[in-house]
């Protein structure tokens, strides 16, 4: 090998190594996109957990029924309150802002969000024993894990994926993602533990979560536990604009 070729190979290897290190160090900035601003809600619940103050947008309602919602990686969940309040008038609503999102302090990570979700469920369950857990996109990974650990009454997963790790491998095929990724959100690991009625809602033209990822997750549930519904003509981010969206959620409650 000539000296010039050797230098070229060494330079390429060095650049590749730097990119791997950058992916390792800055990966969470590629997963979470915190939304700034204050929460607009009839009430705010503050969860004092670990080293953070997690803000939850609440629409209070007396009675046994509640809905806990976990949003996407760039979602201001409080914006769902008007439509959810109208669509589900008989339920108390709790929409959690992840750490670093819309007034919540701290930095998001899979482990921290999972702990926050457990704390929220336990607090809500004390007054509302019949809880539907709803997750959208990244929030489906939070929701399915929570429902495998707590007595949720229903589980609804909107644009769910089998594993964030699988999606990352597809997005960055040239990097050893399986060795670098800290937050894997492997929903398939928890699906088999779910025994409550579960509904998966997919977008026909989802440009973020491939259909086969959703279908792989669907097969991990015990037969008869889950159903899979596809909303036609919508994408990953436009699914909530469909008139079928709230209806399918409501039918699953």
TrEMBL record:
One of its GO terms (molecular function) is hydrolase activity. The chain crosses the membrane at residues 6-26. The keyword Metal-binding does not apply. The keyword Lipid metabolism does not apply. Keywords: Hydrolase, Membrane, Transmembrane, Transmembrane helix. It holds the Pfam family Hydrolase_4. InterPro entries: AB_hydrolase_fold (IPR029058), Hydrolase_4 (IPR022742). Residues 90-188 form the Serine aminopeptidase S33 domain. Gene3D superfamilies: alpha/beta hydrolase. PANTHER family: ALPHA/BETA HYDROLASE DOMAIN-CONTAINING PROTEIN, PROTEIN ABHD13. This is Alpha/beta hydrolase. It comes from Pseudomonas fungipugnans. The lineage of its organism: Bacteria, Pseudomonadati, Pseudomonadota, Gammaproteobacteria, Pseudomonadales.
């Amino acid at each position: 090998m000539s000296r010039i070729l050797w230098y070229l190979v060494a330079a390429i290897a060095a650049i590749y190594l730097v990119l791997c290190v950058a992916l390792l160090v800055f990966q969470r900035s590629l997963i979470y996109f915190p939304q700034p601003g204050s929460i607009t809600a009839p009430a705010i619940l503050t969860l004092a957990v670990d080293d953070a103050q997690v803000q939850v947008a609440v629409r209070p309602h007396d009675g046994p029924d509640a809905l806990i919602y976990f949003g996407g990686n760039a979602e201001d969940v409080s914006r769902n309150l008007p439509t959810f309040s109208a669509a589900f008038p008989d339920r108390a609503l709790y929409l959690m802002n992840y750490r670093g999102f819309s007034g919540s302090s701290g930095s998001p990570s899979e482990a921290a969000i999972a702990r926050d979700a457990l704390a929220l469920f336990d607090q809500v369950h004390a007054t509302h024993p019949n809880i539907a857990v709803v997750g959208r996109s990244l929030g489906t990974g939070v929701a399915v894990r929570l429902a495998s650990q707590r007595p949720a009454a229903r589980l609804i997963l909107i644009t769910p994926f089998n594993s964030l790790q699988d999606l990352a491998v597809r997005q960055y095929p040239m990097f050893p993602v399986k060795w670098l990724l800290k937050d894997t959100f492997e929903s398939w690991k928890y699906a088999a533990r779910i025994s409550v009625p579960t509904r998966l809602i997919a977008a026909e033209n989802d440009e973020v979560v491939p259909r086969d990822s959703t279908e792989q997750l669907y097969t991990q549930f015990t037969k008869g536990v889950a159903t899979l519904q596809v909303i036609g003509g919508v994408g990953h981010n436009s699914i909530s604009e469909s008139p079928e969206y709230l209806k399918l959620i409501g039918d699953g409650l």
